[in-house]
Amino acid sequence: MTRLAARTDDPTFITVPVPLGDRAYDILVGRGLIETAGARIARLGARAAAIVTDEHVGPLYAEALASALEAQGLRASVVTLPPGEATKSYASLERVCDAVLAARIERGDLVVALGGGVIGDLAGFAAAVVRRGVRFVQVPTTLLSQVDSSVGGKTGINSRHGKNLVGTFHQPSLVLADTALLDTLPVREMRAGYAEVAKYGLIDDERFFSWCEANWQGVFAGGPERDEAVAQSCRAKAAVVVRDEHENGDRALLNLGHTFGHALERITAYDSARLVHGEGVAIGLALAFRFSAALGLCPAADAERVEAHLSATGLPTRLAHVPGGCGTVDELLDAMAQDKKVKGGALTFILARGIGQSFIAPGIEADKVRGFLDSELNPSRS
Ligand SMILES: NC(=O)c1ccc[n+]([C@@H]2O[C@H](COP(=O)([O-])OP(=O)(O)OC[C@H]3O[C@@H](n4cnc5c(N)ncnc54)[C@H](O)[C@@H]3O)[C@@H](O)[C@H]2O)c1
Ligand SMILES: O=C(O)C(=O)C[C@@H](O)[C@H](O)[C@H](O)COP(=O)(O)O
Ligand SMILES: [Zn+2]
């Protein structure tokens, strides 16, 4: 991945620019950034801000953010939703749109997503459709949302037919990733977010994957490695998004592990108690490498190295690790058939020739996938 240079005009924090023409914005990363959020958001020139958050994050951070915005002369309101993947729903979308309209948010005003990827995707989608588009700011509070979902403008909700099937592209105006907010994040959610960090190394940066193998404990513990992992992940994602904002080509690489992962999320009924997105991605990453090895594309040793690293952090890597079961081969194939990368009825996978050597593989025959899933579900038969 090409690296975007970090700017150093505010040496306290790392700035990663996302140069998308008239939709360009900055991602700021660092400990303590939230204390400057009121002033930074106020600089966008809005008169009012509707903060969207969830019941875990709201009590920790929403009041302070609302007060900071009010101190800058903005009218602030807060809408709080239940936590978890089930909140990315039509019903929540209606709730958020109603709250934003009730708060009289005008086109020049702001929606502020304060939370993880669930809140970011939902609030971003509401911002995209209310009054046919109001601006929004991402204040991501999970590792996953800081390294992935707050960047790049994919917004949306889930459908009973599949993950993120109703949505649009709507870029934020600013992303403020305060890595100190992750100090309150449960370890299960740290691990889930870490799957998306490792993903960037697996896509096209073997050196970053090796760095992850050596430094993941520092990322979890909140050392300087955490800021470095968040900033490097944002640089990697921003570079892809700038090349291919609307996923006509290369951006699909960011979907490594997701064809399997999204199918597992649908099969587990978006029940965060059973499986969260990052866990589905971890299993999906391990499967994508084992599938690549089974097809003779990738050394088996690389697939083993991927699994060893994800397992070392405590992430699941096998279909058998899905609590309550992962369904049958037919159920998995049925769920994968709704993947957004499907073309002419055929599945597209992101496969790999090795660590850091992923590629887009369209037209994968269902029989090959069936054979692979069968061997994963029934290892004794293969
Ligand atoms: N738009 C994109 O490009 C993109 C990229 C990756 C993932 N996603 C989406 O992101 C979602 C997953 O996001 P997530 O992993 O952040 O999950 P999440 O939003 O459900 O947050 C995980 C949990 O952590 C809690 N939490 C959040 N911040 C906290 C904090 N600082 N302290 C304590 N608790 C906190 C939340 O309340 C929730 O219970 C999925 O829906 C996925 O599809 C979108
Ligand atoms: O930003 C992207 O592009 C990604 O694919 C990032 C993924 O980690 C993320 O889960 C995304 O929401 C998946 O997109 P989808 O288009 O497959 O729903
Ligand atoms: Zn993802």
From TrEMBL:
Matches recorded under PANTHER family: 3-DEHYDROQUINATE SYNTHASE, 3-DEHYDROQUINATE SYNTHASE, CHLOROPLASTIC
Role description: Catalyzes the conversion of 3-deoxy-D-arabino-heptulosonate 7-phosphate (DAHP) to dehydroquinate (DHQ).
SUPFAM superfamilies cross-referenced by the UniProt entry: Dehydroquinate synthase-like
Family: Belongs to the sugar phosphate cyclases superfamily. Dehydroquinate synthase family.
GO CC annotations on file: cytoplasm
Residue stretches making up the 3-dehydroquinate synthase C-terminal domain: 193-342
Record-linked NCBIfam families: aroB
Compartments where found: Cytoplasm
Positions annotated to bind Zn(2+): 196, 258, 277
Organism of provenance: Microvirga mediterraneensis
Pathway recorded for this protein: Metabolic intermediate biosynthesis; chorismate biosynthesis; chorismate from D-erythrose 4-phosphate and phosphoenolpyruvate: step 2/7
E.C. code: 4.2.3.4
Name under which the protein is recorded: 3-dehydroquinate synthase
Binding residue positions for NAD(+): 117-121, 141-142, 154, 163
Segments forming domain 3-dehydroquinate synthase N-terminal: 79-191
